[in-house]
Amino acid sequence: MRTVKVAIAGLGRVGSVFLEALISTKSNSIKVVAVAEPREDLEAVRKAKEIGAGYFKDARDMLEALGDEIDIVFDLTGNAVVRTDLHDILSRQGNRHTIIAPERVAYLIWALITGGEKSYPR
Questions:
Q1: Sign of the torsion formed by the C-alpha atoms of 17, 28, 90 and 53
Q2: In the chain, which ranges are E strands?
Q3: I want to staple 9 with a disulfide (CB 3.0 to 4.6 A). Which of 21, 23, 59, 63 is the partner?
Q4: Would you say 19 and 45 are in contact if contact means Cβ atoms under 8 Å apart?
Q5: Residue 117 banded pLDDT, cuts 50, 70, 90
Q6: How many beta carbons lie within 10 A of that of residue 82, not counting itself?
Q7: pLDDT tens readout for residues 3-36
Q8: pLDDT tens per residue across span 53-71
Q9: Which of 70, 56, 42, 66 is nearest to 9 (CA)?
């Protein structure tokens, strides 16, 4: 079975709950390999470190360091400049493997993970 290596940029209101949902699936086919969040004191950062995910204060540094080791980056920062920078990094690296998924894709995944039983955080 193929493991999808996931990174999450932004562990605020949406990102922290999304991380929890991914962790709670206990699926061997999903692995959170890294998170990026400037506020290291957040509970979500602690949980990510607990499961062995790498921690970065900035999503750009995360992508620069891990590159195509990441299959999907969920960009939940809500910051258009960060999203543009992430795409620029992929382009500069020639990385055609890693996908940057915006919040709408996270919403779709959320609905699938929770079976539509939990409302998506806003």
A1: positive
A2: 4-9, 30-36, 54-56, 72-75, 99-101
A3: 59
A4: no
A5: low
A6: 18
A7: 999 999 999 988 998 899 888 887 889 999 999 9
A8: 999 999 999 999 998 999 9
A9: 56
The angle at the Cα of 14, spanning 6 to 36, to the nearest 5 degrees, equals: 45
Amino acid at 109: I
What's the pTM?
0.90
Q: What angle do CA 66, 48, 89 make, to 5 degrees?
A: 25
Residues near 119 by Cβ (< 8 Å), separated by ≥ 6? none
What is the rounded distance in angstroms from the CA atom of residue 99 to the CA atom of residue 73? 6
User: Domain range holding 99?
Assistant: 4-114
Count of domains for the chain: 1
pLDDT exceeds 80 at position 118: no
Beta sheet of 30-36, edge-to-edge order: 54-56, 30-36, 4-9, 72-75, 99-101
Q: What is the rounded CA–CA span in Å between residue 10 and residue 7?
A: 10
- CATH number for the domain spanning 61: value is 3.40.50.720
